[in-house]
Write a structure and sequence with these properties.
This protein is of the alpha/beta class and 589 residues long. The protein has 23 helices and 18 strands. Helix content is 43%, strand content 14%. It binds iron/sulfur cluster (SF4).
Length: 589
């Protein structure tokens, strides 16, 4: 029910103690309660928080799952990632839109339903996937879509839809030291306390644990820098549970089945760096995991594993809160995530200072992803030998494998494993190409299948998408290009404008109107965006299309014509001008 008087906002303000840092949580709640964040709610929040209305509205505009215009009573988001498209989500969308008499993104005239495409819902192995009123649903093929239509027309509450639709399984296909061992709650934390910070850091260093979110930064070094940043007991542990990279879903499984290990890893970090405060930043699409994680937090409080004097040790205090995201891929970047946690738009910060010295509300903050924290707990509980193996590169990695393979799911592999071996394990023998990493990762052809998944060769935050030869790799690259255009946060000009230009050029090629000059133009744009974009998203946006063109030109040749190319702009001047504009915009913020 839409509350035109902003009364809902007043109630939400009270519930969140009028804390401006919680404005994103308030906006989410309003969206959930009223199917929108109405103009009157924005006004009421602005007054209650003593913020300009424009700032509240800017947040609503920024996050994909917040809307000022009303949504339907049944608010359906289908996953538009490449794996869901391979599983036929476009057919599902057509069935739903036709049945409800709506266009994508537009609510029905009666306000009954809205059908939209989201970037990725993190259910790549069991798609086509959907989120309806916050509930994740797997396997939404056209038949299931028709059943949904019947339930919607009958007015059935989503909570009463068939239970099996919501039973998301974890598909743990290959277990290693993390997935194969159960942690005893409190054991790793107790060991970290008894060892002391220096010995705990040394244990992580000897085990060569690196951040599993893609950057691979040594964990002991990050934690040590944060520990040394101040003597005050004001540090923060932030668990990055915002895995938004299309093709990645392994953190979802850890949060679902190994939540104790996640919380244990956070506690080990807190004990080591001296942090009393922890947050889990949970992506909006994983709302369905929230209650389960919250129950674990409460259980650990009762077990004296969270709260004051943990495990009976005087002065060792640490507690954890869940903060929900509202739909923004760039919030996976640590400084953007901190901005979002503070209730702002998730725009990456200018660094330095780095979060380890000045993070959440200026406090030294360690940001690690779910997988990293789980490995830290396993190493502290069982010792570093648990992650040793006979390969060249130390450590293990969780992969989310999806696409054209018989056994999609989660694989825990020793770093250095060849792609060919992974394809054999997952039943991807017909592979023609593999995307290692999400859209910003590396597309490899069959002649590269001896390459290895490792920090030094094919680095990935966790995605591994298999394509057989029925797949058009131009379409794959086009999907990734549109993903970046949709997810650009808009802060810096090269990325804001460049990603849209790239999407337009890709569409032109898709329509058969492309020419070689478009490829040349994309290369020039790539040079500009790589050098002048503020963060990694803008820097890699042209990579998918250029890599596909380089390795699989056959998918382009039927779409593009030969034509002479005359440069129409000076790249160096454009880079310098972009930097000036970014500096001016940063100053104006
Ligand atoms: Fe935002 Fe793109 Fe600039 Fe990153 S590169 S700050 S995503 S506009």
């Amino acid at each position: 029910m839409v509350n035109e008087n902003g009364r809902g906002a007043v109630a939400v303000l009270e519930a969140y103690n009028e804390d401006p840092a919680l404005v994103l949580q308030m906006l989410r709640e309003l969206q959930l309660r009223e199917n929108r964040v109405s103009t009157s709610s924005i006004a009421a929040l602005a007054e209650g928080l003593n913020l300009p209305e424009t700032k509240i509205r800017a947040r609503v505009d920024f996050y994909s799952f917040l809307h000022e215009a009303p949504r339907g009573a049944y608010d359906i988001y289908l996953s538009g990632s490449i794996t869901d498209r391979m599983l036929g989500v476009e057919e599902t969308a057509a069935v739903l839109c036709e049945g409800l008499g709506v266009s994508l993104g537009e609510p029905s005239a009666s306000g009954l339903a809205t059908v939209s495409m989201a970037s990725c819902t993190g259910l790549c192995e069991c798609g086509p996937a959907a989120i309806v009123n916050g509930h994740a649903i797997q396997g939404v093929d056209p038949e299931r879509a028709r059943e949904m239509l019947r339930l919607i027309r009958a007015g059935a509450a989503v909570e009463d839809w068939p239970l099996s639709w919501f039973m998301i399984t974890d598909s743990l296909q290959q277990k290693g030291p993390l997935l194969g061992s159960r942690l005893e709650p409190g054991r790793a934390a107790e060991r970290a306390i008894s060892l002391g910070p220096e010995a705990s850091l040394r244990a992580l260093e000897l085990a060569s644990l690196r951040g599993c979110g893609g950057a691979g930064y040594p964990v002991h070094d990050k934690w040590r820098k944060c520990r040394n940043a101040s003597n005050e007991a004001n540090k923060v542990v932030l668990c990055n549970a915002d895995e938004g990279e299309p093709g990645t879903f392994k953190d979802r499984a850890l949060l679902n089945s190994y939540a104790d290990a996640v919380l244990e890893g956070m506690t080990v970090c807190a004990v080591t760096i001296g942090a009393p405060t922890g947050f889990i930043y949970l992506r909006h699409e994983y709302e369905f995991l929230r209650d389960r994680i919250q129950q674990k937090i409460e259980l650990r409080r009762r077990q004296n594993l969270l709260g004051r004097n943990i495990l009976g040790h005087q002065g060792i205090d640490f507690d954890v809160e869940i903060h929900m995201g509202a739909g923004s891929y760039v919030c996976g970047e640590e400084s953007a995530q901190i901005e979002s946690l503070e209730g702002k738009r998730g725009i990456p910060r200018v660094r330095p200072p780095y979060p380890v010295t000045s993070g959440y509300r200026g406090r030294p903050t360690v940001v690690n992803n779910v997988e990293t924290l789980c490995y830290a707990a396993a190493i502290l509980e069982h010792g570093g030998d648990i992650v040793s193996h006979s390969g060249d590169e130390p450590g293990w990695k969780l992969l989310s494998i999806s696409g054209d393979c018989a056994r999609p799911g989660i694989y825990e592999i020793p770093l250095g494993t060849p792609v060919r071996k992974l394809l054999a394990a997952c039943g991807g023998s017909g592979a023609h190409a593999v995307q290692v990493g999400g859209p910003g990762g590396t597309l490899i052809a069959a002649n590269e299948f001896d390459r290895r998944v490792s920090y030094d060769d094919l680095n990935t935050a966790g995605a591994f998408i298999v394509f057989n030869d029925s797949r058009d790799l131009f379409d794959v690259a086009a999907n990734f290009t549109h993903f970046f255009a949709h997810e650009s946060c808009g802060f810096c000009t090269p990325c804001r404008v460049g990603t849209r230009q790239l999407a337009r050029m890709v569409d032109k090629i898709a329509d058969g109107h492309g020419a070689r000059l478009d490829i040349r133009q994309i290369k020039r744009l790539n040079k500009l965006m790589t050098r002048a974009s503020h963060c990694g998203l803008g820097q890699v946006s042209a990579v998918p299309i250029l890599t596909a063109y380089e390795k699989f030109p056959q998918y382009f040749s039927r779409r593009i014509h030969d034509a002479e190319y005359t440069p129409d702009f000076d790249v160096e001047a454009a880079i310098e001008r972009s930097r000036e504009i970014t500096r001016e915009e940063a100053k104006a913020r």
